[in-house]
């Protein structure tokens, strides 16, 4: 099978939205609130703000390098600047931070537990396929990038 495109079956934001929605849905019949009160709440607010800011920085870098954010399209350029200097997947990191922030803000253990399935699904169905595509597309340049920059943090 060719790696000309990443072949990602679902847009990652949909996976995270399903995880958050399922967690909030489970919270209604089976409440499992988190402790922490105001500290937990404001930690959630801060994490959501950080996630949105990180996502915005990622978008800016992708636009600057004239490559796509769409995981169904081929990458035209390898981006190694901005947040991509520290993480090979800063957009997915921002979605993960957003999920944690929503879980804290909503005081929902269920939302946080959704990480137990969303992260392995992301790794298998999204990250692995994108990495295969980038190896195919950029070869040694991508291998060198992988040697310098961690997958998540």
TrEMBL record:
PANTHER family: PROTEIN-S ISOPRENYLCYSTEINE O-METHYLTRANSFERASE, SLR1182 PROTEIN. Keywords: Membrane, Transmembrane, Transmembrane helix. Gene3D superfamilies: 1.20.120.1630. The lineage of its organism: Bacteria, Pseudomonadati, Pseudomonadota, Gammaproteobacteria, Immundisolibacterales. This is Isoprenylcysteine carboxyl methyltransferase. The keyword Transmembrane applies. The keyword Transmembrane applies. It is found in: Endomembrane system. It is a multi-pass membrane protein. It comes from the Bacteria. It comes from Immundisolibacter cernigliae. The chain crosses the membrane at residues 7-26, 38-59, 91-119. One of its GO terms (molecular function) is transferase activity. GO terms for cellular component: endomembrane system. Pfam families: PEMT.
């Amino acid at each position: 099978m060719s790696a000309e495109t990443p072949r990602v079956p679902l847009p990652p934001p949909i996976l995270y939205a399903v995880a958050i929605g399922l967690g909030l849905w489970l919270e209604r019949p089976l409440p499992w609130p988190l402790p922490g009160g105001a500290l937990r709440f404001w930690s959630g607010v801060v994490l959501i703000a950080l996630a949105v800011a990180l996502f915005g920085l990622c978008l800016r870098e992708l636009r600057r390098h004239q490559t796509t954010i769409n995981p169904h399209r081929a990458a035209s350029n390898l981006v190694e600047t901005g947040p991509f200097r520290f993480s090979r997947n800063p957009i997915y990191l921002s979605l993960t931070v957003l999920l944690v922030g929503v879980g804290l803000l909503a005081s929902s253990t269920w939302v946080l537990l959704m990480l137990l399935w969303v992260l392995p699904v992301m790794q298998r169905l999204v990250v692995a396929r994108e990495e295969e595509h980038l190896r195919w597309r950029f070869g040694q340049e991508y291998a060198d990038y992988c040697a310098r920059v961690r997958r998540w943090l």
